[in-house]
Design a protein that fits this description.
Blueprint (H helix, E strand, L loop, with lengths): L2 H4 L7 H32 L9 H8 L4 H12 L3 H8 L5 H12 L7 H15 L4 H16 L13 H5 L13 E6 L5 E6 L2 H14 L16 H16 L17 E2 L2 H5 L4 E4 L4 E3 H7 L8 E3 L5 E4 L8 H11 L14 E5 L14 E5 H8 L4 E5 L2 E5 L39 H5 L1
Antiparallel strand pairs: 1-2, 3-4, 4-5, 6-7, 8-9, 10-11
Helix pairs in contact: 2-4, 3-4, 4-6, 6-7, 6-8, 7-8, 10-11
InterPro entries: DUF222 (IPR003870), HNH (IPR002711), HNH_nuc (IPR003615)
Family: Belongs to the Rv1128c/1148c/1588c/1702c/1945/3466 family.
Protein name: DUF222 domain-containing protein
Amino acid sequence: MSATTTLPAWQLPDRDLTTRLLATQRQQNIAYAEQLETIRELDSRGTVPEGYSSTAAYLATILHLTPREARSRLAQATGSLPLTGKALTAGEITAQHAAVIAEFLAAAPRWLTPEDYTVAEDTLVTLAQQANPSTVRRAATRLKIYWDNDPSDDEPDSDADPDAASGSSSASGSARPWREFRWHWTRAGRFRFTGNVDQETGTLIEQLLVPLAAPDPATAPGTPDPRTPAERHGDAVAAIVDLAARTPDLPTKAGERAVATVTVSLETLQNAAKTVFTDDESVLPASHLRRILCDAKVYPAVLGTEGQVLDMGRATRTATNAQRRALAVRDRGCTFPGCDRGPKWTTPHHVVHWSDGGPTDLGNLASCCERHHRLLHHSGWRITIRNGVVYWIPPSILDPEQKPLRNTAHNPPPEPLRSSRKPARRPASAPPPSAAAS
């Protein structure tokens, strides 16, 4: 037993606190796997004491669990989830991850083959090793949508949306899209409306709303935008309507951001430890400026010895719209391991900083959401690109080996599931694919 594990937390240096957090989480994961193994053995023996109606009821009582949690653990213990169990035993995923995966696969379509079932489990376990349970649940939901909408399924869906069925005019690709919009004036003079549109139009509306509904920057520290999300979206709709009357002024996606003037020497910009002054007399570290400038146009000013402006250059730093579209295709969104933010939430980041001579080309750009862009600039994470694939290298405090990690949160459904025809459906009495796989 190391000295780190025997010392109280308050006596540990900062780095060892992180080390202990990682170690104790791994221990919890392993202990949970051991508990599931014990539950499986208990259930298989049928030795639940008299007075309890089931194994789940017994677990709920002695472990002080809710009935739902007890049933969930029993299902995880008795189900056939070899890849999930292996990752849990190795301490690589948490109990919440295991619960999400088990719940999803238990509801998998009965037509899945054992191979399809195993590939689906592998996909979710791989993502669970780098993402939180909420992200894994969203990935599982996307996979379910893919299964439910397989074009090879020519059987009618009894659970189809009745509203969609009523829109018979959009039954085929050549028919007009089904859209509705209802409105009326209230007695208070308000314009109230409801409606729904097709997917293509909805996507376009979302692309307009997202940038326009962004929170306003704080006017001072601790004073964030006071509007609620609903109020911000209301203001965004008003802006869209106003701009629609002036079509040439409609906003374009990934347009130029606000211009700020910063007077700084190249030497200072390259030295992240120094501070710089903006034109509004605020002060910020050079490292913060470098992050901000990742998605801003830079107008270099060449100053003479007396400070006079000798020459003003042109904007040379930002990715073009064509490059942004290419990044959206290549990266599919934020490249941080486990992040499922889509392309519209990201900005291009220079792997080799532009101020250090890094070019603005696809081989030196990676998509990052705002949260992970900040993490990249102000922590020990680094990025590298190999054969067009973005890898994140964790700081040594998180991984002493600093193994490069690739994000799998944007991966499409597993290839074995992309069959031209679904396998024949098994009768209701047939065992689930997990049992067949075991």
